[in-house]
């Protein structure tokens, strides 16, 4: 009788134990035949970071895996239907900042891959309101950034953000890929 139980349990499929990423429906869980995508989602999402998605995922899936859009982000400012590419960085930008730089493609507004610098927020021209669109930047920190810029004339490099009170190593690491001078 013990032998029958052992044979029965060994004949059952074994789960791989791989957790399904947050925001990905169980029905869309990657099968062994589908390659997983790894993308970084930053900007106006609730939990910026690296997410793993099944092949064929869209920006909407990546945003959901990153905790969804922040409350002040207009979903219409992001092309949620675009297919994601393995290894890309998806930047959910402040809509007013995404439309600014000349020469930037309008298809890049709201999201961009790491190769495009068109939607990065310029520290030397951004308003306090635009700076508030960055992750972890509220009205007080945005005002400190503007005051620092006024004090020094212009930011010479993105690293100059480190001189702003309230921007430590972690916050700087979060902001650096989203801004330029």
What does this structure look like?
This protein has helices at 2-10, 59-65, 95-98, 128-131, 139-152, 169-175; strands at residues 36-43, 49-54, 89-92, 121-122, 179-180. The protein has 181 residues and is of the alpha/beta class. The strands form two sheets. The protein has a three-stranded mixed sheet with strand order 2-1-3, covered by helices on one side. A two-stranded parallel ribbon has the order 4-5. It has two domains: 33-119, Ubiquitin-like (UB roll) (Roll), CATH 3.10.20; 120-181, DNA polymerase, domain 1 (Orthogonal Bundle), CATH 1.10.150. It starts with a helix and ends with a strand.
Biggest sheet statistics: 3 strands, mixed
Radius of gyration: 21 Å
* Portion in strands: 5-15%
Shape: elongated
Secondary-structure content class: alpha/beta
CATH topology of the largest domain: Ubiquitin-like (UB roll)
Number of domains: 2
- How is the largest sheet built, in terms of strand order? 2-1-3
Number of helices: 6
Under the CATH scheme, which architecture of the largest domain would be assigned?
Roll
Task: Produce the secondary structure layout.
Layout: H1 2-10, E1 36-43, E2 49-54, H2 59-65, E3 89-92, H3 95-98, E4 121-122, H4 128-131, H5 139-152, H6 169-175, E5 179-180
Label this structure with key terms.
3-stranded mixed sheet; DNA polymerase, domain 1; 181 residues; two-stranded parallel ribbon; 5 strands; alpha/beta; elongated; 2 domains; Ubiquitin-like (UB roll)
In short:
With 181 residues, the protein is α/β, with parallel strands linked by helices. Helix content is 25%, strand content 12%.
């Amino acid at each position: 009788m013990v032998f029958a139980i052992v044979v029965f349990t060994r004949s059952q499929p074994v789960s791989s134990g791989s957790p399904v990423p947050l925001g990905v429906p169980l029905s869309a869980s990657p099968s062994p035949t589908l390659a997983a995508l790894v993308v970084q989602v930053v900007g106006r999402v609730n939990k910026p970071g690296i997410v793993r998605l099944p092949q064929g995922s869209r920006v909407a899936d990546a945003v959901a895996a990153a905790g969804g859009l922040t409350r002040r982000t207009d979903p219409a400012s992001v092309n949620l239907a675009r297919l994601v590419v393995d290894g890309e960085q998806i930047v959910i930008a402040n809509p007013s900042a995404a439309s600014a730089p000349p020469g930037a493609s309008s298809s890049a507004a709201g999201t961009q891959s790491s190769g495009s610098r068109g939607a990065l927020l310029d520290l030397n021209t951004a308003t306090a309101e635009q700076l508030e669109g960055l992750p972890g930047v509220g009205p007080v920190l945005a005002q400190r950034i503007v005051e620092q810029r006024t004090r020094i004339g212009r930011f010479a490099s993105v690293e100059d953000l480190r001189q702003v009170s309230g921007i430590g190593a972690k916050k700087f690491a979060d902001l650096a890929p989203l801004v330029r001078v």
